[in-house]
Write a structure and sequence with these properties.
By secondary structure, the protein is of the alpha/beta class. The chain has a domain of about 240 residues: Lambda Exonuclease, Chain A. Helix content is about 40%, strand content about 25%. The strands form three sheets. The chain has a six-stranded mixed beta sheet. Strands 1-10 form a two-stranded parallel ribbon. A hairpin with a 6-residue loop joins strand 8 and strand 9. Helix 4 packs across helix 8 and helix 5 packs across helix 7. The longest helix is centred in the last third of the chain and has 24 residues.
Length: about 350
């Protein structure tokens, strides 16, 4: 069947907006798994080879670059909750995950070989060859396990982040660059004319329902979730600022390139648009924000490269990218709504 994007209308349900300060373990838990996220939308995006089947069954994976990005986020934005543990000779990549799993699940009542096999199944590490790999795993992980057993001072309530020695150097370099970047620090910790701090919030989750109608006759409700890295609200000057931290394995100066930059490759413009859309709706409820009342908004990428010399830079996302993000975000939400209305096995051509 053929459907037109113009025949769909998206209406935010303002009473449904919820703001929550929650850890990632809760945000990504089964409780909120039915909510749509920006990252999930790519699995139904044709330009990313998405499909209804992929959207319904999205893949799950972890990479070293994701671990580095998460560590930079946590140590930059949640300094009271996270800290980098010292170098402990942790193995790299999946072997490092196996090392953590075995250490956290070990028991005097269970042979270490059995715990390693269990870790292999959970993490997907040499599942069919694990028996042959056990001696190597024990040899490479033992220095790390022994280092973990060494007594050391720990600050109560602060979670340690354990990284391989190489990843530790990368994350440390990224953090040093960000903390020394005045533009980034001023965005994350703004002050008013009197030197007093302006409202600034890190790692806050938002939830909202969108009512999507088709030709005014059929409808469905899409539940959306997002987690803002940082946002600030300057009530006196009526300004909402959304800041998104990004790590990049390429030179930071390439990030905003309209042909090959990360902003295009990962559709970051769509993410920032939809996040600001939801944040603006929340602020309209809490602060009475509106364009008619003179409120304005600003979206920024705070980017640091994960290659020496770990250069960092603040980029404002202008109207061109916002318009591009708006069009793409709305069309993807309408795709999801169409399959919800007409059935996920229905062959639908969009125009």
């Amino acid at each position: 069947m053929n459907v037109k994007f113009s025949d769909f209308k998206i209406v935010p349900i303002l009473d449904s907006i919820k703001r929550a300060d929650m850890p990632d373990s809760v945000y990504f838990s089964h409780k909120y798994s039915r909510f749509i996220s920006n990252s999930r939308l790519k699995y139904i995006d044709p330009k990313d080879d998405g499909s209804p089947e992929l959207y319904k069954n999205p893949p799950h994976f972890t990479t070293s670059s994701l671990n580095i990005g998460s560590s930079v986020h946590e140590c930059l934005l949640q300094q009271d909750s996270f800290v980098l543990a010292p170098k402990m000779h942790k193995p790299t990549a999946k072997l490092g995950q196996v090392a953590d799993y075995v250490y956290n699940h070990r028991s005097n009542d269970i042979p270490i070989e059995d715990t390693i096999r269990e870790a292999s199944r959970e993490i997907g590490y040499y599942i069919n060859q694990i028996d042959n790999k056990i001696p190597m795993i024990v040899e490479k992980c033992t220095p790390y396990w022994e280092a973990l057993d060494e007594p050391r001072w720990k600050k109560e309530g602060v979670e340690e982040i354990f990284l391989s020695d190489n990843d530790y150097d990368v994350v440390s370099g990224c953090l040093e660059s960000c903390f020394n970047n005045k533009d980034i620090m001023n965005k994350l910790h703004p002050i008013d004319v009197f030197g007093d701090p302006i409202e600034s919030y890190n790692e806050i989750a938002f939830f909202i329902d969108f009512l999507v109608t088709y030709k005014g006759k059929k409808c469905t409700t899409l539940r959306f979730k997002m987690k803002a890295d940082n946002y600030t609200v300057d009530v006196d000057n009526k300004k909402i600022t959304l800041n998104d931290v990004k790590t990049s394995g390429k030179p930071v100066r390439w990030f905003m390139n309209a042909e090959y930059g990360s902003i295009v490759h990962y559709s970051y413009y769509r993410q920032l648009y939809i996040y600001m859309w939801v944040l603006w709706l929340y602020c309209s409820q809490k602060y009475g924000a509106s364009k008619e009342a003179g409120w304005t908004s600003e979206c920024n990428f705070l980017v640091v490269q994960t290659i020496p010399d770990y250069e960092s830079k603040c980029y404002n996302m202008g109207s061109y990218w916002l318009k591009k993000g708006k069009k793409e975000a709305e069309e993807l939400l309408k795709r999801v709504a169409a399959y919800e209305i007409f059935g996920w096995k229905t062959q639908i051509d969009f125009e």
